[in-house]
Predict the 3D structure of the following.
Amino acid sequence: MTHTDQILTVAQMRAAERALVEAGASVDSLMQIAGRGAADWVWRIAAHRKVTVLCGPGNNGGDGYVIAETIRERGGAVSVVAAAEPKTDAARSARALYGGEVSTPQADANGDVLVDCLFGSGLTRPLSDKHLALLQRMASSHRHRVAIDLPSGVQSDSGMQLNDGLPHFDLTISLGAWKFAHFLMPSAAITGTLRLVPIGVAAVDGAARTLSEPRIAAPLADAHKYRRGLLAVVAGHMPGAAMLAATAAQGAGAGYVKLFADHKCNAAADLVVETGPLSEVLADNRNNAVLVGPGLGRDGRARERLAVALADSVAVVTDADALVLLSPRALAERSAPTIATPHEGELIALERSFECDGVGSRPERALALARTSGMVIVAKGPDTVIAAPDGALVCAPRATSWLSTAGTGDVLAGVIASRVAAGATAFEAACEGVWLHGQAARLCGPAFTAGQLAAKLPQALAECLSTSSLDHR
């Protein structure tokens, strides 16, 4: 893990800052590093336009004074509004070093860029009516808005908004490390673009991390379809969903995708469809992975198909209807990896089946289910979280909201299954699949269908081929 991709809880961040102080840094020096680093980003946005910095009483407010002084030193137009007097030694020192004027909350502040330094990641209770009104008034009187560390009124570890009516920001600058609220809804919806200012925080054992672009190797020069991976896709009551997943899998790296269905229906010429007994076709020892769930149904026949799929000795990706039918008993005999890709409703159903209490933040719930079930959990949605039984946790950046259309979940399942078949571990495949899925959506632009999303996967895959593998293409 690189130090700049870790996501820290409030407790982890405080411990990391204490470690820096114990190693010889001072709180004042860390505030200068953080504030000046943030000022670089504010300076770019402001482009010599007027900046207003709203400072609170804590160290987040202290960061604001450093930002304001840095802009003032560079000749920028900056003013400071103090919502309250500084209450920490570092904040008081930062204010003393600021050479400009400090206005009261009653001042008629306006400008081009508002920098929110009212409260940071340590906030645990709602903003007071007075502070909320001040923030809203100042946000409405500035064209651009920048939040430092987190927008004020946001709970760092859960991503919850502690107040209604919080303003939206164009940019949020995280200090030291990413926080969960940068990636979790509903707060992720108001953070805007995300940037990080490192302050020297060391890697924290067991920390979550952000989803990053994978490095995927092209097939070897002597590769053939089976060496690249055979994926078996199990169809059911609605074969179109499984066909869509299979089509997506074809563009995500697997060498051979087979669809097991009752009849060949309208399958494309390049998609192999097997219509024999499922127990026989899944007995093929060349299978590298199985995908079951899209369009499966929930009747007795669907349960039988799920049981046969889970009996295979290779990795299995479960999605859609399969998630509603899954139970501890169904996984009792499995030793190979299993991946589950639930949306919120399916996540709740799995929590009930595996007797998880469903309490806590989205990452905490995904981790609890992964540990209890032994599955890799891809809790998909606008704030997708990937959790492994060993405690590994990844949060994906917020994907385009145009993904909220029918069939895109089937595409995601097909991509993840394809990456497993191609040789990635279950957790790696989940991360690669989520990234490819999100990138394909960005390549689509607005208002696309699931089929159009699947068609963009080869282009998304091409973007993350490792440089050393390009000669193999």
